Description:
mainly alpha; 2 strands; 8 helices; two-stranded antiparallel ribbon
Amino acid sequence: MxxxxxxxxxxxxxxxIAIGLHFRWPSNAPYLAIHANQPLSSQWWTLxxxxxxxxxxxxxxxxxxxxxIIAQLSDTALRSWxxxxxxxxxxxxxxxxxxxxxxxxxxxxxxSGALHGVVAYLVIREFNSARLFMAVLATGLVxxxxxxxxxxxxxxxxxxxxxxxxTSNHLVGAxxxxxxxxxxxxxxxxxxxxxx
Length: 196
């Protein structure tokens, strides 16, 4: 699948903001991260800033490469403004899950929770149009989440990003992505039934 020229600007939005944040605040200013020990009311902006901030250049590049690859997987569910909107929504939801849960981490930055959510969202939204591919994608996502739950995050990745891999955030993101896709499916279905 190809990115259409009209989609390039929309798809570039998240990478441009993330790169801008990285170079504007290379030390990853603490006010961009979401902190587990602070109430959400005192850091509400981090629901959006935390997924867009990264610990270092390796972290940024790994997540942006995944973002671009995932964006290539859909011509419908993620086209145009949908990819950045879904990514930001799932980033906020996975950040909210982080602050509500107990992952053992004190703070969180990075797009990976949102990206796991986007994959789950894509699998459900596109399942009928590409059943085999989406089944393989779903299987890969589930295996990855189970492996992370059992063995934890990759040590190599932890060393590269100078942080512990937020595996619980990956799971929360995937669940949020699946629930968002199901909710949208139900809304679309009810609109079609109402118009018939």
